[in-house]
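Quick one, T. Sequence first:
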Amino acid sequence: MMNSYFRRQLAVYVEYHRDPWNSALHVFGIVSLFLAAVLPLSAYTVQGLGAHISAASIAVLPVLIYWLLLDATLGMAIVAAAVLLLSVALIILHHTSSTGMWLITGVLIITGFGLQAVGHQLFERRAPSLLDHPAHLLLGPPFVMAKLFIALGFRQDLAAIIRPVPQAPSSTSLDPGERAGETHRHS
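Structure tokens:
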């Protein structure tokens, strides 16, 4: 179930993310930034309850709980994606040096922010919602997951919030007689 706070925040967030190209760039940008955040933290482990747990797993736990509280279904899907990305981070760590890990992290950060900046500047032509609503920093992953659920035909309650904006026909697509303000006169 989607809580009312999430419904309100998502409705505002959507207004900043109407363009499908911007949304597509956000998918890759958000994944890049998440991986960039967990990659260095995955290099450190903490001993607890008889097991070694990565600092990255501990660090993402509060935000995963937050996303579960916003919407349990989307939250579970995000948890699954986070497990996959945490696993990717461990694979990268096992196949690269410390310097390589930091280079990859830098590239992921530049890529993640770059894709989102291009999406907002080029396609949305609007500043990111984060500038007006700092809490929206944490709405990107649920938004992306919601778009995925809708594309797969699930969650009509989300589709009602994240609906495409109808495009107005351009003046070049109308016949000359159909343009606003013109009438047909037959002599």
